[in-house]
Amino acid sequence: MKFKSKKYSIDSTDYQIGQDNINKWGFDVHNTVFTFSAGLSLLFIVTLLVLDPAVAKAGIDSIKGAVLSNFDFLFMWGANILLLFAVALIFSPFGKIRLGGDNAKTDYSTVSWIAMLFAAGMGIGLIFWGVAEPTAFYTDWYGTPLNAEAFTPEGRELALGATAFHWGLHAWAIYGMTALCLAYFAYNKGLPLSMRSVFYPILGDRVWGITGDIIDIMTVLVTLFGLATSLGLGGTQAASGISHVFGFENSIYLQQFVIVLIMGLAILSVTRGMDGGVKLLSNLNMVIAFIFLGLIAVLNFTTVLDSFATAIISYVKNIIPLSQTSGRDDTTWLHGWTVFYWAWWVAYAPFFGMFVARISKGRTIREFLLYVLLMPTLVTTAWMSIFGGVAIEQIIDKVGILGAEQGITDVSLSLFYMLDAYPMGDILSVIAIVLIIVFFVTTLDSGSIVVDSMTAGGKMDVPMKQKVVWAIISGLIAMVMLWIGGTESIQALQSITIIAALPFTLILLLGCVSLIKGLLTELDKPKATIK
Prior knowledge:
By secondary structure, the protein is mainly α. It has 19 helices and four strands.
């Protein structure tokens, strides 16, 4: 394998995928990455058991605050650059390069592919924040975008537009470019499906040594902690919904039961493989989600149309001022929301990128980026504007609990408070609970596959028990965090993930440089390939 162009030359590598793996007790794992990743994650759990959660959270939060405040420009411009780079690739001659080579065929239909990338990328976040975020912006729960006045038409417009901004093109550019880098080097250059492979054009064979091990171990831990955070937050939301609808006490035992249920279903899904597991659940997710969305849209047809149009117009009108850090007066909102989101998308990007790379063989770069950028952006904008618009309308009209409270009192229950305003609110709440659980099963399933691949030296065909191990470890971290400190511990884990996003932002930007080096080697091929 050679990376060559007129501008540079990189020696070929003799590295064989899995050559550093050990085969013992039915496992096939990369010796260093698996050992350190599993050991450090277990050490983290033990450390949590002996520390005071409140003290630990305070210290971690102070570091997170410093990172978000002092490096806001890096997160913001990192996201801007990744989006601009993705758009440039779409319109460049390289857009016709096919992942896996000219004759590569896709493994999944376009509909199933979109369903899987959407479910893995943001599905559960939409359930958690679909009502809460626009409501927070409109009511000045933690600052307002561009200092818009709360409870005004301008505040409503910016609340919907800023929410679409957070879940739109920038987020999917971060995800998409990570996935593209991984897919290109795995399928077009024959390298292992791991983060270290992305840097081969820059580091050469050093990526197979300690440097590459560190990159992969960091990636595993960030992915694992991100999964555990999502699982913990989702478990608490599902438990809150169950308590709200069925009257059970929202205790730690109910939350742990929900996580165990999700973990058990994810293990069952893992054992069924990609087609019988993730693909099936992702398609089921999309069906339930669109039924849910459709019911809300029918019940609020006029509001929904206006909210969707308002969100799109506001998004387009404010994307530039929202995409910069200089000259901003709304720094509390900027750091608490936008910069936080950008850091979270970066931290989650290796997980999403690895999974989407795994299912995207056979797509051209242009097709890949167009679908990854546009389809999820349209869906997330529709979702957030519909649920957020209805919630804001309830506040304006003083309808239901949201109207009475004039905003958020419990983030985990905000969706259920909105649904309570309807005669069929209990039925809608049950659908929401089912959707939360299925989305989380899909996330944990796909996350286990990703972590397993990274700890198996980039292999994609590995023993089933390894995936089960990582599903259990992710669930155990979330359960231990909730047990010793409740949602505060989960938030502390989230803060650790955000802190880790700082170096990962630089890693992703370097990955784009490496991708350019790799794509330039296509110039040595017949011009028809990239015309």
